[in-house]
Amino acid sequence: MKISSREVEYVAHLARLEVTEKETEKFTAQLNDILLYIDKLNELDTKGVTPMSHAIAVTNAFREDKILDSIGTENSLTNAPDARGEFFRVPKVID
What we know:
- By secondary structure, the chain is mostly helical.
- The chain has helices at about 5-15, 20-40, 75; strands at about 85, 85-90.
- A hairpin with a 2-residue loop joins strand 1 (about 85) and strand 2 (about 85-90).
- It has a two-stranded antiparallel sheet.
- Helices cover about 40% and strands about 5% of the residues.
- The radius of gyration is 29 Å and the shape is elongated.
- The protein has a domain at about 5-40: Histone, subunit A (Orthogonal Bundle), CATH 1.10.20.
């Protein structure tokens, strides 16, 4: 499969991009190089190769959730510039 300059111009039009004639030639060549590379990849024998979604094995790097004691309401409000009861008071953001 080959990409023509007309197809590049069409896609540029759909994307509402203005491309010069020089850019059209450049993009056409680049896209054709990519398609040639994909054709080479399609020639590879991949029988017996396990499909994967990542190049390296991905393991869960997160720790398990653990319930820990918190500092408590009274301690958390000691440095608050403004508090009302058990809540922080903050400036109004929405009218």
